[in-house]
Write a structure and sequence with these properties.
With 292 residues, the protein is an alpha/beta fold. The structure holds guanine.
């Protein structure tokens, strides 16, 4: 069993990005500028946005965090989006999800200019991704594909089972893994909360991507010997004897599943750091122009 070290790979990519920023600076070009919009004070969202801003600083990108109270109206948020669309200094921006219930996420996401949509959530970018055209790829699935690539894990003709059908992870992951390209080319099965006898599918997986948001959902009896397991889940669970009183864990029962795997991502330090560098890669691309 080999651990897929997302922390190490993300550090390598951050170094590559920092080198690219230094080159852009030396040649007198614009430095990438990412804006993160945060509405309300959901603790997980606050942590994610803080990590994104910190990562920008680490690679030399300009970053701006825009914070608004949870009671802002949808019209006010759409105004912010409109301003960001028109601001030439902003290369890319994200609106952190989830949004408060009174604001339509789809309405907001569809108002983002597709060329600044570095999350890759706008239907234009989703459509381009599905068609195999240049597009901003959603950060988590793109980060997972990058991990498979950097570990040179064979994918062609393999059976990839994805658990979870969210727009952010599961659905785009299934699309990317089924594409005809290097580090894809899989036969893909997409399982979700309504899948019956899910173990029948997971036991067939050469590559199992778990993104359903339930701590320790995948147990050892659900995994084939030698499988590659990618755990997208991240949960705080109480842990006696730790300073904070909790520890982070994933959707996979790591302790018991890991011995069966050829490769597995840990939580934390697996997929999480890759999500952030994918966003940085998209922002660099937005600064340089998607086709350039
Ligand atoms: N909420 C959870 N993941 C994400 C993400 O990748 N982007 C945004 N904008 N919100 C999220």
């Amino acid at each position: 069993m080999e651990l897929i070290d997302g922390k190490k790979i993300s550090a390598q990519i951050k170094q590559e990005l920092a080198d690219e920023v230094a080159r852009l600076k030396a040649e007198g070009h614009k430095i990438p500028h990412l804006v993160a919009v945060l509405v309300g004070n959901d603790p997980a969202s606050e942590t994610y946005v803080a990590s994104k801003v910190k990562a920008c600083q680490e690679v030399g990108f300009k970053s701006t965090e825009l914070r608004y109270s949870a009671d802002m109206t949808e019209a006010q948020l759409l105004e912010v989006v409109d301003k960001l669309n028109k601001d030439a200094d902003v290369d890319g921006y994200i609106v952190q999800l989830p949004l408060p219930a009174h604001i339509s996420e789809q309405k907001v996401l569809q108002a983002i200019a597709p060329e600044k949509d570095v999350d890759g959530f706008h239907p234009c970018n989703v459509g381009k991704m599905v068609s195999g055209l240049p597009a901003y790829l959603p950060a988590t699935p793109a980060g997972i594909v990058e991990l498979l690539k950097r570990y040179q894990i064979p994918t062609q003709g393999k059976h990839c089972v994805v658990i979870g059908r969210s727009n952010i992870v599961g659905t785009p992951m299934a699309v990317l893994m089924s594409r005809k390209s290097a580090y894809a080319d899989c036969t893909v099965t997409l399982c979700h909360s309504r899948t019956r006898n899910i173990k029948d599918y997971t036991l067939q997986a050469d590559i199992l991507v778990v993104a359903l948001g339930k701590p320790h959902f995948v147990t050892a009896d659900m995994v084939k010997e030698g499988a590659v397991v990618v755990d997208v889940g991240i949960h705080r669970v109480p842990a006696a004897g730790t300073k904070s009183g909790f520890r982070l864990t994933g959707d996979v029962d790591f302790e018991n599943v890991a011995p069966k795997c050829s490769y597995i991502t840990p939580v934390p330090g697996g997929v999480g750091p890759m999500t952030i560098v994918s966003l940085l890669q998209n922002t660099l691309q937005a600064c340089k122009g998607l086709e350039g």
